[in-house]
């Protein structure tokens, strides 16, 4: 009898000592409400992503959705999605006003180009600047956006509403 009591107490104590975030969530809205802010769901989230809601938020035909079509994160307890259908464009913004070696090389080869193509600048971390070439040098132009509080381009990310019903 005493061993059962000890075992019960040990189990109860273990359950009480577990960190609050240790449970797995199967609903992304509940998960984000619990974790607050995180740049991508971690192992505590074990459910499906609300791809239909994200498709609606971006006016994308759900039939066009494939695995990996959206990036997900939580900010302030809310669910945010970014559509990256053709290429990964949902990374944190590149706010550097210093050109990359690829941009420098492009401008040397195209000294008067008015636009440095995304294939040269990179897609995953969108530049906060409109880059151009002047006399063979890569020059940052006007600032295109101010990153959100977590460093992401705000126009690429949409806050999703919790489905009703």
Describe the structure.
The structure is a single chain. The protein has 165 residues and is α+β, with helices and mostly antiparallel strands. Among the domains are: 23-87 and 155-159, no CATH class; 101-143, no CATH class. The chain contains 5 helices and 5 strands. Strands 1-2-5 form a 3-stranded antiparallel beta sheet. Strands 3-4 form a two-stranded antiparallel ribbon. It is elongated, with a radius of gyration of 23 Å. The N and C termini lie far apart (48 Å). Residues 3-19 have low confidence and may be disordered.
Biggest sheet layout: 3 strands, antiparallel
Helix content: 25-40%
Inertia-based shape = elongated
Count of runs of 4 or more consecutive helical residues: 5
What's this model, at a glance?
The chain is an alpha+beta fold and 165 residues long.
Index terms:
165 residues, alpha+beta, three-stranded antiparallel sheet, 17% strand, elongated, disordered N terminus
Which secondary structure elements does this structure contain, and how are they paired or packed?
Layout: H1 2-17, H2 28-35, H3 51-57, E1 70-75, E2 78-83, H4 101-109, H5 118-121, E3 129-134, E4 137-143, E5 157-159
Antiparallel strand pairs: 1-2, 2-5, 3-4
């Amino acid at each position: 009898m005493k061993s059962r009591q000890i075992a019960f107490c040990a189990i109860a104590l273990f359950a009480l000592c577990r960190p609050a975030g240790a449970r797995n969530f199967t609903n992304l809205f509940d998960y984000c409400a619990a974790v607050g802010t995180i740049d991508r769901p971690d192992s505590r989230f074990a459910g499906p992503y609300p791809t239909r809601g994200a498709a609606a938020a971006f006016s994308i035909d759900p039939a066009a959705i494939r695995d990996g079509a959206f990036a997900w994160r939580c900010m302030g307890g809310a669910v945010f999605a970014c559509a990256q259908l053709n290429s990964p464009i949902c990374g944190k913004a590149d706010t550097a006003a210093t050109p990359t070696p690829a941009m420098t090389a492009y401008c040397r080869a195209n000294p008067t180009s008015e636009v440095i193509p995304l294939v040269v600048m990179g897609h995953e971390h969108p530049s906060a600047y409109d880059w151009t070439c002047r006399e063979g040098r890569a020059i940052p132009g006007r600032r295109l956006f101010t990153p959100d509080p977590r460093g992401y381009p705000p126009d690429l990310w949409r806050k999703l509403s919790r489905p009703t019903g």
